[in-house]
Design goal:
The chain has two domains: 121 residues, Yope Regulator, Chain: A, CATH 3.30.1460; 184 residues, no CATH class. The protein is 33% helix and 24% strand.
Length: 315
């Protein structure tokens, strides 16, 4: 289902408070959609097994009750009408993420885990991600487009994208990894954010992409939201990849906002650096055990001997 499907149904039921309709009879879980007695948009889950108690928040109201037939009803409602589109996206995610559950217990666990992630996101929904994170996201999406152009399947691409989950490297694909760094044009160094980021026996590639803040007068500027929407469009015919993509955006803390339509960036050139045993990097066995966290800068001029062409990525 799409977010527009949920919004359309809520509007159809607006005058029928308390009315709930089954979403999809083929789904392994019994999801219902409707308007609750308070007039709030609601998604309800009916289960035989008692689910865990999910907590309410300022934006989301959650109730768990045992019905007369012995089943359990978990009702999730949005208390603010202005959040309807975001709440619809949450509902889509909960339904789609649990669609392949092999048992009711597995489905309940998936719903609870995804709801917790969304609840954290709702708590910060009025905040915007830092510019460094937005630039990083744009850089990773730019590289994703590059991989697709080279023939990587949509499912493999999204499965390989590890950046939003906080992994040490942004993409791990087949027998190689790629760490994407988005930096401003003219910058003479790149920051390695952890001791483990370049520490691996598997050959990899450090990808440095120039990403600069721009303005509406720049014909080559692109908004952060436009980059996200472009990837959504590309994945529209790959439902599993599309679902996982949305999950990873949530993990990153990304929500569609007007502010992200106004953040305009210019994407410049990309450079590739072979990372192997001889690459200048810090590794655990060369750092005193008393040092538990490391962040360091690499000189771009200094690592120039390790610069490679695009062919290295596919070698």
């Amino acid at each position: 289902m799409k977010t527009t499907d949920f919004i359309s149904k809520w509007e159809d039921f607006r005058t029928q408070k308390g009315y709930m309709q089954r979403l999809d009879p083929s789904h392994p879980l019994d999801f219902f959609i409707g308007i609750n007695e308070k007039g709030y948009d609601e998604l309800a889950l009916i289960t035989v097994i008692e689910p865990c108690q999910m907590k309410s928040s300022k934006a989301l109201e959650v109730e768990k009750n045992k019905r007369k037939d012995g089943k359990w009803a978990t009702q999730i409602a949005s208390v603010e009408s202005k959040n309807q589109e975001i709440f619809a996206r949450l509902c889509v995610d909960l339904v789609e993420n649990s669609y392949t559950a092999k048992s009711e217990q597995e489905g309940i666990s998936r719903v609870a885990a995804r709801f917790l992630a969304w609840q954290r996101l709702f708590a910060t929904m009025h905040e915007t991600l830092p510019m460094s994170v937005l630039k990083g996201l744009v850089g990773e999406l730019k590289f994703a487009q590059y991989l697709l152009d080279k023939g990587v399947s949509k499912d493999d691409l999204i499965q390989s994208w590890q950046g939003p989950s906080g992994a040490d490297r942004d993409y791990v694909l087949n027998d190689k990894w790629y760490e994407i760094k988005a930096i401003s044009t003219g910058k003479d160094k790149v920051t390695i954010s952890s001791l483990n980021q370049l520490e691996t026996d598997i050959p990899g590639c450090l990808v440095i992409i120039n990403v600069d803040e721009s303005s509406k007068t720049d014909p080559d500027a692109v908004s952060v939201k436009a980059m996200v929407d472009k990837m959504r469009s590309v994945l529209s015919d790959a439902p599993d990849a599309s679902r996982i993509f949305e999950e990873k955006l949530v993990s990153l803390g990304y929500l569609d906002k007007q502010a992200y339509e106004e953040v305009l960036l210019r994407i410049g050139t990309s450079n590739y650096y072979r990372v192997g045993e001889d690459f200048p990097r810090l590794v655990t066995d060369k750092v005193p055990s008393e040092i538990v966290a490391v962040r360091y800068d690499l000189s771009l001029a200094g690592i120039d001997p390790w610069k490679v062409g695009e062919e290295y990525i596919w070698s």
